[in-house]
Amino acid sequence: MKLIVIVPARIGSERMPNKPLLKFNGKTMIRHTIDRIMESGLHPVALASDSSLILDACSQITGLHPVMTSSSHKCGTERVLEAYEILSSRLGEFDFIVNVQGDEPFISPDMLRQLPEELEKRKGLAEFWTTVTELPESEMADRNVAKVVLDMKDNALIFTRDPIGCALKHTSVYIYTPAFLKKFCTMEPSRLEKAYSLEQMRALENGLTLNCIPLPFDAISVNTYEDLEKAGIQAYEVYTEKA
What we know:
- The protein is 30% helix and 23% strand.
- The chain is α/β, with parallel strands linked by helices and 243 residues long.
- The chain has a domain at 3-130 and 173-189: Spore Coat Polysaccharide Biosynthesis Protein SpsA, Chain A (Alpha-Beta Complex).
- Strands 1, 4, 5, 6, 7, 8, 9, 10 and 11 form a 9-stranded mixed beta sheet that branches.
- α1 (29-40) crosses α4 and α3 crosses α5 (178-186).
- The protein starts with a strand and ends in a 13-residue tail after the last helix.
């Protein structure tokens, strides 16, 4: 099995300007994210960004593949596809593309290590997968936390940001086959995708299967400054220069 990890990170963010360059515990957010992925042992790992500042923040990481991508992408998945097309011309084709978003500085390396085994078991079930875990009661009403309800085969029925019964927490790692990724990016953003800012709804509204991988690992995605405080980060430095 050949897989590649691609981390999309854009410089623009309405709620947290220059978010990947926010610094805490001596490192930028994007550096924390990449370091945790590297700790998992999965490889190769690529960083796909529209900003030389973001790429420069991780330039000292041995083995990382930096890829400059367009600033016109509407979502991270489109950025991943552009990076994959560039990288596959150099490194060859892969069976799976793992998308770890650049605002996951607390992601568990142990969770990532389990993905190859899980994908081997599930590769006949779908061409699109994502990770989920138990939803803490304290996050049921948190609209920054995406929730998902599964069917009896662990396929996603619906994603929402609203409280919903029998839900699990979406832990924000996506895996695709290259063929699926290309198909997904040819589709127009869907009604529920735009309503909830959840791009995985594009697949569900087009009748495509999204198989979910329940794993006992939680992590706080950083969407707001309050998320940093939730993670116990009291002191941080915001990059305020024009990017």
